From TrEMBL:
Pfam families: POT1_C_insert (PF21375). GO terms for molecular function: G-rich strand telomeric DNA binding; telomerase inhibitor activity. InterPro entries: POT1, POT1_C_insert. GO terms for cellular component: nuclear telomere cap complex. Residues 61-204 form the Protection of telomeres protein 1 C-terminal insertion domain. It comes from the Eukaryota. This is POTE1 protein. GO terms for biological process: regulation of telomere maintenance via telomerase; telomere capping.
């Protein structure tokens, strides 16, 4: 790649740059010797703007394992059909007779159109969760406690919207009870934006970032350049 910007600056050797104090502005002419990562999908990381941590994006197997672990406890019927959500339950026709519960959040005591609806699912498989995410606006995987529904381990996405998984920072998040969502349901026009959902649930939202490292050489030295962007 040839950069044609900054014609007003003369080319500077990398050796000179490496021996100079930052910050400075330079124009260089160099070759790309190496770049990392080698595969493009490995460039996508999860970044927390609060603690500045950078982590790998969990794969589907991790999510599936957490969902399987949440199936152990059956949905608590005392938490079904509240003032702000309607519940539907059934038994899956598999060897374990798995219990599934879906809670549809209401607005003005009425269910919304699927494309505007947030729902919570207990006991679902990865395939079932993705199927619901294609049909409804937002899906939150949950499990029952004695008093309320709660989010799963933050190693799993706390929210799915379309084909996007939203994660929270384990270090900076202080998860609140699921009933905190009722405040959004009570709004005049609930938008179910991920940032708003994260805020009321006490989740510090992680952002997907793109990061790469390039090693540039010009015969006088080698310089590492980092690309980091949202």
């Amino acid at each position: 790649t040839v950069l044609t910007d900054h014609q007003d600056l003369n080319n500077t050797d990398l050796k000179t740059i490496l021996n100079s104090m930052a910050p400075q502005q330079y124009r260089i002419r160099a070759k790309l010797r190496t770049y990392k990562p080698q595969k493009l999908y490995q460039s996508i990381k999860l970044h927390c703007s609060k603690c500045n941590s950078l982590g790998e994006v969990p794969d589907g197997d991790d999510f599936d394992f957490i969902l399987q672990g949440s199936v152990i406890a059956a949905p608590n019927p005392e938490l079904h059909n509240t003032s702000w959500y309607d519940s539907v339950t059934w038994t899956a026709q598999d060897l374990k007779q798995r219990k599934i519960a879906i809670h549809f959040v209401k607005h003005d005591e009425m269910l919304q159109q699927p494309e505007d609806t947030l729902l919570m699912i207990e006991g679902g498989t990865l395939k079932e969760v993705w199927k619901l995410a294609k049909r409804f606006k937002c899906v939150i995987p949950v499990r029952s406690t004695e008093d309320d529904l709660e989010l799963l381990d933050l190693s799993a996405p706390f929210l799915l919207q379309g084909n996007i998984k939203y994660y929270g920072c384990k270090q900076c998040s202080t998860p609140k009870p699921i009933k905190s969502l009722s405040s959004i349901a009570a709004e005049q026009r609930p938008s179910w934006e991920p940032t708003e959902i994260a805020q009321v649930l006490g989740i510090e939202l992680l952002q997907y970032v793109f990061i790469m490292k390039f090693t540039l050489v010009d015969g006088t030295g080698a310089l590492n350049a980092y690309l980091f962007d949202y």
